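Retro notes (design track)

What went well: tokenization of the new backbones is finally stable.
What didn't: we kept losing track of which sequence belonged to which structure.
Fix going forward: every design gets posted as structure first, then sequence, in one message. First example under the new rule, 228 residues:
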């Protein structure tokens, strides 16, 4: 049964699923923190002036309409731009196989160009449908911050790992030990970054980070790099 909530900041009224009872979250409109009351905490008014009958006009139709959730849809030009961008990235990655001297530079430039769109795309699939989606400048600002943290994880893996993985173990067992040592920390860092920037829970935040790692890893392999 849905729970009716009124934001104390912007006074927006909306309904949320009862599975969020007793929890806190951002207001879909102003993003202020609100508390979702438990069913037993709800104040129910049964006076005639608040009944469904009083909300009907002379014709018998309901005068008060439910608050419609804003839906975000990609415009045709956005879909075309995404398709062209994906093809361009893939073609560029394949072309770099013939220019090994520039592969690492191309990988850095490629990460700078595609990281924010990747984080935004993953958010579109993993976001909580009960919350109003981020859009416009707010979305891309959050995507840029999240992308910077994810790129920092890759930078640490490439340049910082020699200072943290035991030298003897790395030499005898191969670089797979890098993932054994820092994989859980990377997963926690990525999930926390997605939680802070996109309001995803830790579970979806982890999948958000994994999506980014898998796509960038596949592009690196396409270019001919060996990330491990």
């Amino acid at each position: 049964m849905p729970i009716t909530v009124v934001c104390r900041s912007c006074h927006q009224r909306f309904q949320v699923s009862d599975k969020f009872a007793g929890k806190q979250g951002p207001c879909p409109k102003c993003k202020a923190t609100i508390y979702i009351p438990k069913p037993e905490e709800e104040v129910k008014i049964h006076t005639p002036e608040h009944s469904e009958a009083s909300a009907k006009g002379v014709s018998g139709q309901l005068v008060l309409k439910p608050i419609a959730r804003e839906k975000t849809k990609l415009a045709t030009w956005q879909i075309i731009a995404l398709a062209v961008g994906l093809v361009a990235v893939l073609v560029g990655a394949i072309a770099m196989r013939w220019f090994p001297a520039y592969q690492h530079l191309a990988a850095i430039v490629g990460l700078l160009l595609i990281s924010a769109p990747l984080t935004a795309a993953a958010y579109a699939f993993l976001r909580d449908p009960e919350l109003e989606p981020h859009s416009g400048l707010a979305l891309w600002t959050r995507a840029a911050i999240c992308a910077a943290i994810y790129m920092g994880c890759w930078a640490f893996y490439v340049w910082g790992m020699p200072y943290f993985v035991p030298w003897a173990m790395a030499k005898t067992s191969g670089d797979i030990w890098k993932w054994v040592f820092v994989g859980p920390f990377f997963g926690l860092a990525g999930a926390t970054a997605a939680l802070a920037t996109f309001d995803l829970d830790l579970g979806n935040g982890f999948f958000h980070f994994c999506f980014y790692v898998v796509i960038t890893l596949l592009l690196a392999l396409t270019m001919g790099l060996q990330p491990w």
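Added context from the reviewer: The radius of gyration is 24 Å.
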